[in-house]
Amino acid sequence: MVKIDNIELPDFPLLLAPMEDVTDPPFRAVCKDNGADLLYTEFISCAGLIRDAIKMRRKLDIFDYEQPIGIQLFGGDEESIAIASRIVETTNPDLLDINYGCPVKKVAGKGAGAGVLKDLDLMVRLTDSCVKATRLPVTVKTRLGWDEDSKNIEEVAERLQDVGIKALTIHGRTRSQMYKGEADWTLIGKIKNNPRIHIPIFGNGDIDSPQKALEYKNRYGVDGIMIGRATIGYPWIFREIKHYLQTGEMPPAPTVEERVAVCRKHLRKSLEWKGPVTGIFEMRQQYSKYLKGIPNMKEYRNRLVVLTEPEEIEAVLDEILVTCQGFEMEYAPIELINYHENCPL
Ligand SMILES: Cc1cc2nc3c(=O)[nH]c(=O)nc-3n(C[C@H](O)[C@H](O)[C@H](O)COP(=O)(O)O)c2cc1C
Question: Which entry of 21, 41, 169, 228 is 20 to 30 Å from 29 by CA?
Answer without folding.
Answer: 169
